[in-house]
Design a protein that fits this description.
The chain is of the alpha+beta class and 161 residues long. The strands form two sheets. It has a five-stranded antiparallel beta sheet with strand order 4-5-1-6-7, with helices on one face.
Length: 161
C-alpha cells in the first residue's frame, strides 16, 4: 500500500482525478464533545432549549460554521480538490448526560470523495461550540473525530462502531 499524495520522487502531490468517473459521493463524519458534569444540565435547567452565549445561539452558529468549514476544506487542507458540494448538513444532539454528538453529512456529484469535507465540517462545528462555551469551562474535550460512512467512488466505508 502506498500513500496517494506522494509522487514517484517522494514529494507531496495532488491526486490526479482527471480519468475518474463522475459519481454521486456522500460522507458522514462525527465528533464527540464531552463537558464536565452538570454543565449541559445547567443550561437545560435554565429553560434554554437553544444554547445561548454572549456570542449568540451556540447550535445555530456551530451549524453555520460547520457548513462554511466544509465548503472551505480545499483552502485548509493543502492537497484537497475543490468540490462543488450539493448538500451539507450538521446535526447536533445530546448523548449521555454530558456529551454532544456533532455529525456532518456532505454530498457532491464529482470525481473525488467528500469525506475530508465531512470531517472538516464536524470539527469546525465542534470547535465553534467550544469557542462559544469556553466561558463556562475550559474542560470541554473534543474527541472521536472519525469518518462514519462514505459512499461512491472505488469503495464504500462504513463504521459500525
Amino acid at each position: 500500500m502506498t500513500l496517494s499524495h506522494i509522487n514517484e520522487d517522494n514529494q507531496p502531490a495532488m491526486v490526479d482525478v482527471g480519468d475518474k468517473a463522475v459519481t454521486q459521493r456522500t460522507a458522514t463524519a462525527q465528533a464527540v464533545m464531552t463537558f464536565p458534569p452538570g454543565i449541559l444540565d445547567q443550561i437545560e435547567a435554565s429553560g434554554n432549549r437553544e444554547f445561548q452565549s454572549r456570542k449568540g445561539p451556540v447550535f445555530q452558529t456551530a451549524i453555520l460554521a460547520g457548513i462554511m468549514g466544509a465548503k472551505k476544506t480545499s483552502e485548509l487542507i493543502p492537497l484537497c480538490h475543490q468540490i462543488p458540494m450539493e448538500n451539507c448538513t450538521i446535526e447536533i444532539r445530546a448523548r449521555e448526560p454530558d456529551q454532544l454528538l456533532l455529525r456532518c453529512t456532505t454530498r457532491a456529484t464529482h470525481k473525488t470523495g467528500v469525506e475530508m469535507e465531512a470531517l472538516t465540517g464536524a470539527s469546525v462545528a465542534a470547535l465553534t461550540v467550544y469557542d462559544m462555551c469556553k466561558a463556562l469551562t475550559h474542560e470541554i474535550v473534543i474527541s472521536e473525530l472519525r469518518l462514519l460512512e462514505k459512499r461512491g467512488g472505488k469503495r464504500d466505508v462504513h463504521d459500525h462502531g
